[in-house]
Design a protein that fits this description.
Layout: E1 2-3, E2 6-7, H1 9-20, H2 23-29, H3 34-48, E3 53-56, E4 59-62, H4 64-83, E5 98-102, H5 105-122, E6 127-131, H6 137-143, E7 148-152, E8 162-168, E9 170-175, H7 187-192, E10 194-198, H8 208-215, E11 221-226, H9 232-236, E12 242-246, H10 247-254, E13 259-263, E14 271-276, H11 285-298
Helix pairs in contact: 1-2, 1-4, 2-3, 5-11
């Protein structure tokens, strides 16, 4: 089918090429032979009057024009998929939808595993592609390439719908043998102790604790820098160092490690974990179903106000 001289099937090929960055992988993704995909590339170049792709080794490199086309093409195809060819009736038990979700290790351990367990019972053919949050999550939402992002609400984008999941708070965690934690932790002592701290790999967003301290113009004494909260407990055990983590995650590790939890000194705030999804998916029945699952499971989270 042509629209103003453009064969609309070429948009599917263009989207696959932009996503896969490989002629072979793109052809496989949309069930074309390599000669047919090569022919599609030639026709795309002719229509747009641009090379669109170069080669660096075996990887396709996008031209500036292809970079500009990437977002609008993905948005157009997603809109067609969700608004025109999507089924009106959604049956979770028969769905084979694969949801792509960006979330942290904290959310995975303290919350999302409950979601996966429930979905396995109610919709056994539904699957997940879980990725760590990155700098690109807003762009992925815009293009509809991720179904959900779960992160603290102050890191969410105003360009897409969102909903609060649950309130969490940070605590200090150290080894049970750490005598520095036997007394109330003052702010000055907290700042001067050795810390195992998180710097999320590939993301420009600092952790909640670091963002708060940076906002006050303060710096902790950081002895060990790690890529995820889950790496903190093993590295404070047997030492005098401390870490700052979400309470729900510390509760998980406390079952198997000699850890003690200490309240952080004033004025560390609680924060709200939120879920965000592409505006393109707002009326998608499968997305609506998964949103409801996530929100229901969030209501079952243990309250963050107290700890053992």
């Amino acid at each position: 089918m042509r629209f103003k001289g453009l064969d609309l099937n070429l948009l599917v090929a263009l989207d696959a090429l932009i996503t896969e960055r490989s002629l072979t992988s793109a052809a496989r993704k949309i069930n074309l032979s390599q000669p047919a995909m090569s022919a599609a590339v030639a026709r795309l170049r002719s229509y747009f009057g641009d090379e669109l792709f170069g080669m660096r080794g075996r990887e396709l490199v996008l031209s500036a024009r292809a970079e500009r086309l990437a977002g609008p093409v993905r948005e157009a195809l997603t809109h067609i998929e969700l608004s025109i060819i999507a089924r009106d009736v959604f049956d979770p038990a028969r769905s084979n939808r694969r949801f792509r979700i960006a979330l942290s290790d904290f959310i995975s351990v303290a919350f999302f595993r409950n979601v996966v367990e429930r979905v396995a019972r109610e919709a056994p053919a539904v699957s997940f592609d879980v990725m760590a949050p990155t700098d690109e999550h807003q762009e992925l939402l815009r293009r509809g390439e991720v179904d959900f992002v779960i992160l603290p609400d102050f890191f969410t984008s105003s360009a897409h719908p969102r909903a609060a999941l649950f309130v969490e708070r940070l605590v200090s965690v150290g080894c049970c043998t750490n005598s520095e934690l036997l007394h109330q932790l003052t702010f000055d002592r907290y700042m001067s102790m050795g810390h195992v701290a998180v710097k999320h790999e590939g993301a420009h967003k600092a952790s909640v604790a670091q963002s708060f301290l940076t906002g006050l113009g303060l710096n902790r004494r950081i002895d060990v820098l790690v890529q995820s909260f889950s790496m903190i407990p093993p590295l404070v055990v047997g030492t005098s160092r401390i870490g700052t983590m979400p309470l729900g995650l510390v509760r998980h590790f406390q079952r198997t490690m000699p850890l003690q939890i200490v309240d952080l000194p004033h004025p560390f705030p609680a924060f709200t974990e939120a879920i965000q999804w592409p505006v393109l998916h707002n009326s998608d029945p499968e997305s609506l179903w998964m949103r409801e699952i996530l929100l229901q499971e969030a209501t079952r989270m243990a309250p963050a106000q107290d700890h053992p």
